[in-house]
Amino acid sequence: MMKTQNKVALVTGSAAGIGRRIAETYVEAGFQVGIADINLDAATTTAGKIGDAAVPLRMDVTKEEEVNKGVDALAQHFGTVDILVSNAGIQHIDPIVDLDYSNWKKLLAIHLDGAFLTTRACMRKMVDQGQGGSVILMGSAHSKVASPLKAPYVTAKHGLLGLCRVIAKEGAEHGIRSNVICPGFVRTPLVEKQIPEQAEELGISEEEVVKNIMLKDTVDGEFTTLDDVASVALFLAAFPTNALTGQSILVSHGWFME
Ligand code: NAD
Fold first, then answer.
1. What's the total number of domains in the chain?
2. What angle do CA 92, 93, 99 make, to 5 degrees?
3. pLDDT tens by residue, 164-219
4. What is the reported pTM?
5. Which residues have C-beta atoms less than 6 Å from ligand 1?
6. Is the dihedral of CA 150, 231, 119, 52 positive or negative?
7. Is residue 167 part of a domain?
8. Does residue 215 fall inside a structural domain?
């Protein structure tokens, strides 16, 4: 079963947004973290603010060699790799009929190839270490529902559910669990960017995008917060047994209920 103290976590896309708050929360809980991001300057700044429990890692999650090197460097720096949060992601807004193939492929590569490559590298370490582990994939409410203009994102986020379930089956004998977090809208740069994009594409105001599209189906018209998502990421990292594996947890103010 997974060791319960001095955990080491790789968090991808953690120079900013949700990933950064998860890394900060992990360190507050006593973990050590790798701040892995395609933006090394930002990762270095984030790790510097966190302190000795964080190490910056330059990692484009779509590059096999960079992922393997980054995971090796983290294991060398802190001794083990016990938790993966595969979080790096982007958004792309376009109707299918106007969607360039290159944009489709780029988004799927970051979300799906990135999840596979980081999972494989971390699982190899976890199996060798023999102390279990926790793989957390950052899904979305869009792992469960579709929205117009987001074909590659909705496709990728649904795909992560399948990967999570296979990891859970293959990881079980090694005490490696896998779960997906499915947040609703959180006000990060990723979301701030798409508010004006959607407003323009749909011919409505930015206020209408927030109220009538993003938060329309929530129970209270509220955004999900960084801390909401980070709390669930901590719970999933710390859960001690295979009882909680292969699952997806919605953190979306009731946007979608199952
Ligand atoms: P963000 O744009 O604030 O941060 C994303 C980070 O990922 C950035 O630091 C960026 O440099 C990094 N990144 C981008 N491409 C990368 C690559 N190829 N390799 C490594 N790092 C890369 O985004 P966010 O809102 O914090 O989103 C984080 C994750 O949460 C994403 O997977 C996103 O789909 C998911 N999510 C976000 C929301 C939301 O409302 N913000 C909701 C549901 C799910």
1. 1
2. 85
3. 999 999 999 999 999 999 999 999 998 999 899 999 999 999 999 999 999 999 99
4. 0.97
5. 12-13, 15-19, 37-39, 59-62, 87-90, 110, 138, 140, 183, 185-186, 188-191
6. positive
7. yes
8. no
CA atoms within 13 A on the CB side of 53: 16
Query: Which has the closest alpha carbon to 246: 169, 165, 185, 141?
Result: 165
Give the separation between CA 136 and CA 126, rounded to whole angstroms.
Answer: 14
CA 210 to chain centre: 23
pLDDT digits (tens, 9 = 90+) for 3-51: 556 899 999 999 999 999 999 999 999 999 999 999 999 999 999 999 9
**What amino acid positions are annotated as catalytic residues?**
153
What CATH code is carried by the domain that includes residue 80?
3.40.50.720
Task: Tell me how far the alpha carbon of residue 194 lies from the centroid of ligand 1, in angstroms.
Answer: 13
Tell me whether residue 218 is in a domain. no
Residue 202 included in any domain:
no
Pick from 47, 12, 44: nearest CA to 27: 47
- Atom of ligand 1 lying closest to residue 62 CA: 18
